[in-house]
Amino acid sequence: MTMLDLNILWRLFLIQNSRNDKFHDGLGFFFALIPLFRSLSGKDLSRRGELARRNFDYFNSNPVLSGMVAGVTRKMEESEGMADTGQISRVRNTLSSVLTAKGDEFFEVVFLPLALTIACIFTIYGVYIGPLVFLLFYNYFHFKFRIIGYYRGLKLGQEAGTGFFEDLSKISGVLRGATAFTAGVFTSIAFFRGYQFGGTPVVIAGLVAIAAVTLLRRKYSPVFSVIILFVLTVVLLSLLSI
């Protein structure tokens, strides 16, 4: 790992700090590539300005996987014959779009709920290493994809996505199964503990909450959702008064 690699990688951790409506994460991505511009241009300020203008643009990718785009961009900028075409911009935009879809699904829909559920199970039983387990579990994949993704992009260039998305889908499939199992365990524990704490009313309140979330996720009309929630609330209050 060279100093240039280190300078780019640590800056990528700050990619979201300057997020805005016009460039999204473009300023953060540009900031991460500044060491590359300096390395390629030396003391030639006109060359540095050219590199900066070419890479100062809208950028939207999953933050954890943005390192792959940075690696691909660096490899293409260092390759002769690439600087005079718009290919770098096209490859960057295409790759970042795919990484947004795949990465957001993996980290926000599959992996993050799994890690949080595991931490909550530990905490319910008074084992307060739950947050530590979450941090270790989450950051293992976090750092792995950030660093390995960057070097994959640097090594393979435009072909960095070949095989990567298939591997990510396989990992996602395994974790989906683990998430479903863990969610079932957590739900059982939550209802059991709720019954111990407050008896049947607490369990019923939990069922009402689950029903409400299910209705909202199925995107029923607001009026229908309010009616159903009102009926469930009346039933719950009636049971509590018995």
Features:
mainly alpha; single chain; 242 residues
Précis, in short:
This protein is mostly helical. Helix content is 78%, strand content 0%. The chain folds into 2 domains: 3-198, no CATH class; 199-242.
How would the blueprint of this fold be written?
Elements: H1 3-12, H2 26-41, H3 45-55, H4 66-78, H5 87-124, H6 130-156, H7 164-198, H8 200-217, H9 222-241
Helix pairs in contact: 1-2, 2-3, 2-4, 4-5, 4-6, 5-6, 5-7, 7-8, 8-9
Walk me through this protein's architecture.
With 242 residues, the protein is mainly α. The chain folds into two domains: 3-198, no CATH class; 199-242. The protein has nine helices and no strands. The chain has helices spanning 3-12, 26-41, 45-55, 66-78, 87-124, 130-156, 164-198, 200-217, 222-241. Helix 2 runs antiparallel to helix 3 (45-55) and helix 4 runs parallel beside helix 6 (130-156).
